[in-house]
Design a protein that fits this description.
With 255 residues, the chain is an alpha/beta fold. The chain is built from 8 helices and 7 strands; from the N terminus they run E-H-E-H-E-H-E-H-E-H-E-H-H-H-E. The protein starts with 8 loop residues before the first strand and ends in a 7-residue tail after the last strand. Bound molecules: NADP nicotinamide-adenine-dinucleotide phosphate. The site of NADP nicotinamide-adenine-dinucleotide phosphate has 30 residues, from helix 1, strand 2 and helix 6.
């Protein structure tokens, strides 16, 4: 067990399953105390797995589409531990790949709310504490869909492009105040998102356009491959890395 994050505190959203769960377990194994957020009770399962492994964590069940959730999470972390060192905005949802003409506005609203507005609100909620201490690192989980136009549907693609812009702007704005903000862009990664629904749930016409792009990815990653890069970005090993948008996709975006 390494201890590069000993004494640090972290909030990880969407940590009840998949990539977020792997991130929460990895940060905790490195010594961080973790606020484990998910939309449902899965948050408790991850938090209890951390505690069983000797780490410190508590669950914060909250739907991040609710605008009050970000403040509630930050307040809970500050009440419990007095500081927030690491924020990992991981929670994310897909659309059904319908092109714009067929995309229901309510799908657009929900995807933007969870994938883009919630990270903004969480950053806004944790930055006052980080800025006061001139120390903090934010890691946003974007996507291959942030690097290409044809790897996902329009709401998801737009949300992840937006998250990259938010990452770069925040990195630049606070570069001289001890804050770092980076993004990771996973390629296809084992999780409920890739195995739960699958192409059968997706718009069949859009699948004809997106399917060939998906067919280019070299191989599916384990969630741990993403978590390892988040650990690097959360730790002092990356102390001069700021505003970086890092593909973790086995080379997919190089094609
Ligand atoms: P996943 O297996 O579907 O897990 C998503 C997690 O986010 C779950 O814990 C879920 O909570 C939580 N969540 C969903 N909506 C939420 C909401 N409104 N409020 C709070 N929590 C919410 O997804 P994943 O594949 O691990 O994806 C994690 C991140 O990686 C996402 O941002 C995704 O866009 C990105 N990504 C994934 C892939 C991939 O191939 N898997 C590729 C590129 C990018 P519950 O457990 O309570 O449902």
């Amino acid at each position: 067990m390494t201890a590069e994050l000993a004494g640090r505190t972290a909030i990880v959203t969407g940590a009840g399953a998949g990539i977020g769960r792997a991130i929460a377990l990895t940060l905790a194994a490195a010594g961080a105390k973790v606020v484990v957020n998910a939309r449902t009770e899965t948050a408790h399962e991850t938090a209890s797995a951390i505690r069983q492994g000797g780490g410190e964590a508590f669950a914060a069940v909250a739907d991040l589409a609710d605008r009050d959730a970000a403040g509630t999470l930050a307040e809970a972390a500050l009440r419990e531990w007095g500081r927030i060192d690491i924020l990992c905005n991981n929670a994310g949802i897909l659309d059904r790949w319908e092109p714009v003409a067929r995309l229901p506005p309510e799908t657009w609203d929900r995807v933007i709310a969870v994938n883009l507005t919630a990270p903004f609100l969480l950053m806004r909620a944790v930055l006052p504490d980080m800025l006061a201490r001139r120390s903090g690192t934010i890691v946003n989980i974007a996507s291959e869909g942030a690097l290409r136009g044809g790897a996902a549907g329009p709401a998801y693609t737009t949300s992840k492009h937006g998250l990259v812009g938010l990452t770069r702007n925040t990195a630049w704005m606070h570069a001289e105040e001890g804050i770092r903000c980076n993004a990771v862009c996973p390629g296809a990664t084992e999780s409920r998102m890739t195995t739960g629904g699958g192409p059968g749930d997706m718009d069949p016409v859009a699948f004809g356009r997106i399917g060939p792009v998906l067919g280019l990815f070299p191989h599916m990653a384990e969630a741990q491959r993403i978590a390892g890069v988040v650990l690097f970005l959360a730790s002092d090993a990356s102390r001069h890395v700021n505003g970086a948008i890092i593909p973790v996709d086995g080379g997919w975006s190089a094609a």
